Each structure stands twice: as structure tokens, then as C-alpha cells.
Amino acid sequence: MATSRIMSRRDLDFLLYEWLDAEALTRRPRYAEHDRGTFDAVLDLSEQLATDFFAPLNQSTDAAEPYVGDDGRVVLPPEVARALAAYTGSGLPASVFDHELGGLQLPFVVHQAGSAFFQAAAIGVFAYPFLAEGNANLLVAHGTPDQVRRYAAPVVEGRWYGTMALSEPQAGSSLGDITTRAVRQDDGSYRLTGTKMWISGGDHELGENIVHLVLARTPGAAPGVKGISLFIVPKHLVHDDGSVGERNDVALVGLNHKMGYRATTNTLLNLGEGLTTPGGTPGAVGHLVGEEGRGLTYMFHMMNEARVSVGAGAVALGYTGYLHALDYARVRTQGRALQDKDPAAPPVVLTAHPDVRRMLLAQKSYVEGGLALILFCAHLVDESRTAPDPDDARRAERLLGLLTPIAKSWPSQWCLAANDLAIQVHGGYGYTRDYPVEQFYRDNRLNPIHEGTHGIQALDLLGRKVVEGDGAALRLLGDRLRATTRAATGAGGDAASYAAQLDRTWDDVLRVTGVLWAKGDPALALANASLYLEALGHVVVAWLWLEQLLAVGGRSGGFYDGKRAAVRYFYAFELPRTGPQLALLESLDTTTLDLDPDVL
Amino acid sequence: MATSRIMSRRDLDFLLYEWLDAEALTRRPRYAEHDRGTFDAVLDLSEQLATDFFAPLNQSTDAAEPYVGDDGRVVLPPEVARALAAYTGSGLPASVFDHELGGLQLPFVVHQAGSAFFQAAAIGVFAYPFLAEGNANLLVAHGTPDQVRRYAAPVVEGRWYGTMALSEPQAGSSLGDITTRAVRQDDGSYRLTGTKMWISGGDHELGENIVHLVLARTPGAAPGVKGISLFIVPKHLVHDDGSVGERNDVALVGLNHKMGYRATTNTLLNLGEGLTTPGGTPGAVGHLVGEEGRGLTYMFHMMNEARVSVGAGAVALGYTGYLHALDYARVRTQGRALQDKDPAAPPVVLTAHPDVRRMLLAQKSYVEGGLALILFCAHLVDESRTAPDPDDARRAERLLGLLTPIAKSWPSQWCLAANDLAIQVHGGYGYTRDYPVEQFYRDNRLNPIHEGTHGIQALDLLGRKVVEGDGAALRLLGDRLRATTRAATGAGGDAASYAAQLDRTWDDVLRVTGVLWAKGDPALALANASLYLEALGHVVVAWLWLEQLLAVGGRSGGFYDGKRAAVRYFYAFELPRTGPQLALLESLDTTTLDLDPDVL
């Protein structure tokens, strides 16, 4: 089959229209101005812009890393600004926002599908509008109308950018330990002092301003996460009429030099360093969002979408790597078939070798399975916002909460594994910078770390999401999964046998979950939470592969046969991996708990 | 425990002396001049030189990649030459060679242990002497006395370097398809024309000369591997008195730009390009090694050692990454214990978190297990050469042949996984080039590719080594493994329960191997050979962990407790992974065979 070298539009269409019935969303008031035609136009436009403006600079922006010039400003290759101007000019930064803010009110699932082209083409460049969107999204949800007008609207228009400034050098996974201080002033504003680390897009000259959303502590606030508030800290102060004024006291201390994702500046920022002294008072000017002490609550409110989008980036990198490996394997010749003993016969293409096919099928099952997971979750975001029945909306939100750590972690692990296999298919060539797959592998290695590491996601899943509401979310997932296996059993054939395998594994998951929490001891229950995350991730993706198989039905053609091959692979090679993981969890193994780290 | 930041000398001592009884080798004639004192001196010297001269340039040589200067010569940072001068000055290049060649006649296992320090410190720099040693080794085994004197002796002295020039742009895994031509001249020499790709150390100015060992075809030779001959092609021609003469027609076409391993030049070379025309006749001057048509046989004769050494490099990179992660996890604080609800309590070190302990234990089990595998195989090399009983020597060689694809592949997979975990333990810091672990990960990614990919190793294991002699090698392995489980059963306690688990798994391996070959159909038997390689690798390492536990015995102390913890981890978390793999193999799954690649 012909494939796009960036993403498979055919697969996106299948998942959106033949499986998720995204078109049905247009019957809801929020999306009533849309139809399949406007959805398709967004996908067409995204593919075209990503192909024309983003893909060509992926390797060059990796090689020419951003640096700080003599004037203290960040220098990026000029083609980055050109690509972002094309993106802004298209109106896509406004995709998900309300009409009244100049937005397009696109369903999140369609936006996510379109964004995949940009993430696949040049994820380090697309990170700038990606971060800005998340920033504006949070302000729209929790800011005052004036804050939205002043700080979010220019971001939606694509004129400004934005960041999430959470981490500090000593506090990444443990945000309760941040020490940046925010002191209230007589005029209601705050002055912030402190140091923020790992701030992606924390400085650059791509727009007129950068809106930092900063977590900080007010004097006398409670220790831990309950004493944290959220502040708007613009790089340049903003006048009442929305125009950009003098520089705020947000100083770029340095850029982090990363293994990949290099087009994205990643910064160490000092607030209140004395770079400027706005109004004569020391500290960076900040404006409280919502109420004091609720900063993390606001942040977590947007966390589902942010984490699903990180997973989407991991999928996009894995997916484009797979397409590159496939293109290569179809034309590169090497060796002979095992049964062919004639050394004078011409060599065969790589796809003739079973082990290469295994590596391609594995990649396909990871990246198409991952894409299904991401779009399913993105669709749940839309459901949670627009389902006509409020109970449906609440169920969607609850299921989304359970699936979020998986949507973030599973692609970060397995689509990175796909990138590893894409290198392997290329052999020595894949290890060189003349081919793009090694960059995908380096870029994707970020995803298991940022927005909460695997270990953090595992604790979120098994320590919170699985237990809250007495297991309500897991029951919702079980209901959906069982509905799928019932339908698959009815369909008979391979689908029925996959359904039986999945039903047995789900029984195991439920039993193991019960055993883990039987004693109510978090230390014991969570000792091997990472394995639980991995196992449940494979089960969820197996379920979604069965969903895809049902959507395929009896249709003929190479595309559908490819889906059949991938689901066969996943149930034969992948789902069984969960067996030993679940058995270990059920044994309440205490190897890690018993370990005295001094003996390492 | 205090740890070296490069390698653990304590672990090397344990494996060499408390487990393998390397000292006993000194009772054999070849090693009679050695004792524990000289072995220790080699390890001391290696650690010191690696620490003082190699480790300091690892990051700088990664950042400042070799390039071709205006004069066409390769430019490397000057500190590379200084480090190699220190290595050469120490006499270590002569470690394994015969006294009559100026060698030290060290056991290979001791040499391998010492080399681990250099591989861990700066593998891309150590590659130059590493490649030279392999080159000289092959010449010593198959060259004429004059060839050895003229081309190998200067390499043993450390004055010259050497390469293995096998691959071509169109032929990597499939060497039968090489097309470089070698035409015999009246004086008995040959003239070679062709293009060689991926030649590590293929050009540089580090020594007075570079001896290329080149595979090529003579006119009228048989197609495939039987028509390939081996030639000495020096960069500079060599006079009868051994002095270096005019330039041979070996032209550097370009350097490959790699993801890692950057200090090592990797080259595209043209032979007979017309760079020079030695004696007026076109083509690069070459000298036949041995007989025409036996080039690959000679090459494969040295393959066991070369592949074990590649595995050793993978282990060293994984090992040093583990030590760095451990050092970091012991001092970096983050978060609180799960049961601690007081946000005002001080944060704990990373090793207090079970998931971090899991990641450290996993690394420990991979790198110490991998080191045991490598040293066991290196010891078999010594056994195969010096065992007093010729039957013992033959058995050692046969067992080594079986274990070689595992010794090459298992560390390439799992010590790379260790590097991945070392990054994860570091969090965001691990993704930056300010910490060394991301480089280890990039460097180590080469190892699953060169010296035969995973897929090639898998076919070698299941298609050749397992079946030859009617399964004689697998029986040898089984005898050794069963002897270990018998001893462990006798020891009782945990050792006995691990033994029972390993015995059951070995029964599975034998049964599955029989099923795979029951129909004698290579296509069916080898369809999933990579899974067989992975599963048998885990079984072998589990066996060697049990061997280590027996060597630990009842001894007390942190070091021994660490071994106990790692073996416990390996049997609980790792060995069970083989269950689904062996089950899939036993099912004779044809997913990859049935696949029509057009549907991908």
C-alpha cells in the first residue's frame, strides 16, 4: 500500500469514521457548525502544512540546537518561525477553543488527529504551539474573563506562546516541595521569586510574548501540595489594552542540552532575579489564577488532556518511524529466503524475511494500537464535555481518568520500542543521522519522563484511579471491555477466540487487583505498581485491537487485512506478556520492599 | 558500598576468583609465568589508565565528532592520541599474544576483564586498539610467518592499527553478496577494486599504518560465501624491512555520522579508486591470507571472540550506567515514602522508593548477569585453547559456539535496557547531555546491529548451533546447567527453589527445541528464531545467576547480600518472561510466515 511518509491518513480516517463515528459529534450543539467536510479539511490542511513546513526542518533543527546569543536572546533557526507562521496563519491554534474566543470549536478528537501530522513531522517544533494551547486551555477554564481576554486570547490567535512552569531543580515528581514564593501586593498582584527548571518553551523570540503559568507558595501557606497557588507571569507585562509592555523579571539562566527534542528550548528560569524591577518593587509580577492554595487542583484539571497529548506525541513518533522502516524494508534487498540455497539467485527485499516482518508487525501493532488508544481517550474528552446525558459525561470523565496514565505511559514505552525496531530494520543505516529513525528514537525517549514519569503514572493508576469510588472506573472499563468481547464472541472466528483470551486476562486483572488491595496496605499494594501499569496497558490495547477488528468486520482489501494481521500478532506475541506480570503482582512479591539499598 | 564510577572491581574479582577460579589457569603451561599478582596488576593498571586517560575524554569526543580536514585526513581531538599512547605504552595491546610475538600470554578472561574498564570509560576511543587486536589475532591464526611479522607484529606493539573490512553498501548481513574484486598479479600479490562500508577505524592518523583485512572475490570464484577470499590491504605499503612505504590505493570516501559511538571513525572506503597507482598498476595492493575461497571460514574462526567482545562492550556500557544511576539515586532526594503523609517531613533519597529500587535491581541483574556471561565465555576461550584434556578443549569450543550468539545479543538487548533505566532513574537530568547516561544509551544502541544483528544471531543459534552434532552443544549446556541445579538443590533454601524453577524451564527449552525441528522444515523452525534467542538468553543468564549464588554460599556482607537480592529479582521478575515466549515457539506460530507484506 502507498503510505504517507509522515502519518497514515487512511488509518486516521478508519479510526475516526469507521470505528469512533466522530461524525456523530456534529449532531451536538457545540460542534453543530461542523460536518465531515470540515473535519476532513482540518486533516488535509494539517497533513499539507506538516509536510511542507515542518517535516523539512526536523533534521536541521535537531542538528542546529537553540542557543543563547550574545544579546541574551534565544537563537533558533529562522525556518522555525516560518513554519510556526504557517501554522498560525492557518487558524489551527484556535482549533479547540470557543467561538467567542475566536476558536473553531473542533472536537478534541479531530484536533488530536490533525496534530499527529505535526508531531510526526517535527515534534520539537510543534511543541511551541502545543504548549501554548495547553496554557490557554487552563486559563480559559480557571481564569477571570479579563485574564482570558488579556492572556489567553493572544495565544489562541497564535501571536503569543505559553508555558507550564511547575518543576524546580529540587522538585520534579514531587511538586509539593516547590519553594518559589509569591507575595501579595497592595494592588492585588503578586511578586514571585524562585527558580523554575525544565520549562519547555521557557524563552524564545517566536512571538510577541510568553505567558508563564507558574506554581508558587504564598507566605504562611500549608506545607505540601495544599499550599500551592497558580500564577500568570508574563515575560513582558501587558497593558490594559492588551498591548505588550516592559520586560517582567523572568530571567533565562540557561538552556538544557538534551538527547533529543532539541528544537524545543528547555530552560532554567529565575523569577525575581533583578533583571528588571517592574514598578520599582523586586520580584516578577504575577497574577493569581482562581484561589490561593488551589494551584495543583487547577493544574490537574487539565492533566488528562496534557497527558493524553504527550502519549499522542509518542504515538506520532513511533508511527512515522514505522512508516519509514516499512518504506525502507520494501526496497532494500538483503540475503535470500531461508529455504533458498542458490547463492546465485538475486537477493530478496527485507520484507521477505520473517524476522523483519515480525519487527514490522510489532511496530504496526504498537503504533496503530497506540493511535487507537489516544483517539479513544480524546473522544472521551469530547464525551465528557458534550454528551447529552450528564451521566454519560460523568462516566466518560471517570473512564478517561483511569485511562490517562495508560495513554501517557503505554505509547511512551511501546512506541519508543517501535522506534528501536525501526532502527533495527534499517541496520547500520538506521544508526546514522542520514536516516531519520535515530532521531525519532532520541526524541521519543523524553516521553517516559516528562508530564509524570512511568513510576508516577503507575502510582496514579493503581493508587488512585483504580481504587477511587470503590473501583468504579475499573468497573466502567470492564463493562466496555465485556461488551466488546460479547460482540466479538458473536462474530465468531478469530474474533471469538481473541475475545475468550481477553476475557480470561480480564478475569486475572480483576482478581489480581483485589489481591493487591486486600490488606489495604499501600506499600504492599503499590510495590510493583509499574508492572500493573504495563500489564493493564497491554490489556487495554488488546481490547482496542479487538474493537478495531470488529470495525473491520468482513471488509476485504489490503488495509483491512493489515488490521487483521496486526491484531493476530498482538494476541499471539503481546497480550501473553501480561501473564508473568500479573502472576508476580498476585504473589505480592516484596523483592523491592525488602531490599536494603546499601547492598547495591 | 563504595563503587568505582567506571566498573566494579569488586565484582570482577568475585567473578574471576571466587567463581571462575581464574587463578587455576596459571597451572597451565601457556600461563605459567603468571600468578594472581600479575592478573591483579593488569586489572589495577587497566582501571588506572581508563580512569586517568579514557574517562575524561568520553563526553568531549562524543561532542567533537571526527571529521575530514581540508587535506583529506581524519581529524580527531588530540586527547585521543594521548589516551591511546598511554594504552600502548602500558604494553596492554600485547596482552593475549604469544611471547614470541612480544605478547604477554595473558588468559583471554583476564584480558576481557581488564578491557571492561576501557570499554566503560570511553568505548568509542577504545574501539581503535580493540579492532586492531582482533585484526592481529586473525592474522596470527591464519597468516604466514612473514605476514605475521610484517603486519601483525606492529599492531601487537601498538604502533599500527587494523580493521575488518567485510561489509559493502549492498551487503551487510549477507556477506555472500559482496562484489569487491581481487585479481592476482604475476608477483603473487593481488589488486583489489570495490567499495567497503561501515568500516570502523577505517581511516585516522593515530598510528603509522592501518592494516585492513578485506573480503573480496577472485575472478571466476564460486557465487556466494564459498567464493570469498581474505586479503591484507595496508593503508601504506610495507617494505621488506617492515618500514612504511608509499600510500596504497585505499581512499576514504566519507565518514558515517552516527547516533553514538562517535569517537570511532566509521568509514566508506574505495579500493582501487586511483588515489595512487602503486607500481603503475591500478587497484589497491592486497596479499592473500591462506587459500582462495576460504576467507569467510577464517573470519568465522575468530568470530566467537569478536562477538563475545561486542557483548562485553554492551555489558561495560550497561554496567557503568548502572553505577552512575546508583550514585545518583543515593544522593538525590525526591518525594516521601508512600506511607508517610506528612508533607513537612524532609524528602527521602531516590533509593527509598520501591520503583527506583526495582529499576536499580533490574540494572544490577542485567549488568552483573551479563558480565558473568561474558567472563564465562571468555574463560571457555581459554579452555578451548589450553585445557589439558583435548576432549575438554573440544567441549569448551562447542559450548562456546552455542553461547556466542547469546553472549553477543543478550547484553546488547538487556544492558541497553539497563541504560534506558539509568536514564529513567535520573529523570529529566538523565535526558540531558550534562549527565553521561544518555551517551551510554546512544553508544550501546550500536551493539544490537554490528557483528551480526539480533536476527542473524538468532538464525546462527537455532539454525546452526542448536542442531549441529545432533544437538551436542545443547546437551553440553544442559549437562552444565543440571550440574548447577543439582548443587543448588543440595544447598537448599532459596537456591533449591531457584533450581527447581530453572529445571522446569530447561525441560521446556528441550521440549520446545524438539517441537521446532520435529518437521525438519527450516522456514517453520526458524520463523520465530529471535524469540528463541531471547528466551534461551534469559535461561542461560538465570543459570549463571544460580552459579553466582552458589559461589556466594553462606558468606555475609553487603556485597554478597547484593548478589542474593539480584538473583532473587532475576528469578521473580525476569526468568518468567520466557514462559510466553516458549509457549509461542511451541505453538509453531506462523503469523510472520503467513503475512503478506503488501498489507502492511
TrEMBL record, chains A, B:
List residues of the Acyl-CoA oxidase/dehydrogenase middle domain. Answer: 164-237
In this chain the Acyl-CoA dehydrogenase/oxidase C-terminal domain maps to 293-460
Q: Which domain of life is it from?
A: Bacteria
Enumerate the spans annotated as Acetyl-CoA dehydrogenase-like C-terminal domain: 481-596
Arranged from A to Z, the UniProt key words for this protein are: Flavoprotein
Q: Which Pfam families match?
A: Acyl-CoA_dh_1, Acyl-CoA_dh_C, Acyl-CoA_dh_M
Protein name from the UniProt record: Acyl-CoA dehydrogenase
The UniProt entry, under InterPro entries, shows: Acyl-CoA_dh-like_C_dom, Acyl-CoA_Oxase/DH_mid-dom, AcylCo_DH/oxidase_C, Diverse_Acyl-CoA_DH
Q: Does the keyword Flavoprotein apply?
A: yes
Listed GO MF terms:
oxidoreductase activity, acting on the CH-CH group of donors
What is the source species? Nocardioides panacis
